[in-house]
Amino acid sequence: xxxxxxxxxxxxxxxxxxxxxxxxxxxxxxxxxxxxxxxxxxxxxxxxxxxxxxxxxxxxxxxxxxxxxxxxxxxxxxxxxxxxxxxxxxxxxxxxxxxxxxxxxxxxxxxxxxxxxxxxxxxxxxxxxxxxxxxxxxxxxxxxxxxxxxxxxxxxxxxxxxxxxxxxxxxxxxxxxxxxxxxxxxxxxxxxxxxxxxxxxxxxxxxxxxxxxxxxxxxxxxxxxxxxxxxxxxxxxxxxxxxxxxxxxxxxxxxxxxxxxxxxxxxxxxxxxxxxxxxxxxxxxxxxxxxxxxxx
Length: 296
Ligand code: SF4
Fold this sequence. Notes:
CATH architecture: Alpha-Beta Barrel
Shape: globular
Bound molecules: iron/sulfur cluster
Strand content: 15-25%
CATH topology: TIM Barrel
Strand order of the largest sheet: 4-3-1-2-5-6-7-8-9-10
Helix content: 25-40%
Order of helices and strands: HEEEEHEHEHEHEHEHEH
Largest sheet: 10 strands, mixed
Structural class: alpha/beta
Number of strands: 10
CATH superfamily: Aldolase class I
């Protein structure tokens, strides 16, 4: 565990005032990246303003009225600050958004003690850094459990990254290749390019990578069969510029309902691996294992 400092000035009273919007909470096995296979509680925050063509959590792109808890003990004890909705079949319970930081922290800490072999709390999305004020209130309260906090992020929110990095232990950051994203706020079937977003996302990554590099950190890049080698090389170069030993994961795309891309052939995959391995010391090719296993 690396430097995880806490802002002791965040009082419980203040933290109650910041609403948090969730999509779901569940316990499962991490299916991506270098921590594949470990058991985690997944805290999926709602809302993401980006638009990856392969996104498999589009239902988490907006802030919904309700969130769902799957297969966890004591689901009735979640304090969402609002009335909950009666249990539904299939071991899931639906609650109303928003939640409070103290209520969520108290619930999760109780759950942590009832799950043997738990590795960490995965704070995922949607894009968690789009709710950085809530995370800034919640994470210091959750810290007493001493369970490592694992952040999954697209890395595109520079100020939020700097604010939240001290409060987490492990960071999994995607570098998004523009050509695998949708242009113009999500025109289905078309691909973006670096100029589409009105901002240079590689420029953002060049500043965010050094912020997260102080943590237990790895980078993940999703590619398809038509990935742009120039974009991929740019991503590799940004990581190498900060630290050649940062673990770098190439993840072949699994599903791509939105832009209709295909998984890379083995030749394309090995081509990408070769580009990365020429500049970096720790390159792995890891698919989405939870999809292979048919689990959440
Ligand atoms: S950043 Fe994540 S949640 Fe947002 S569109 Fe991309 S894959 Fe989906």
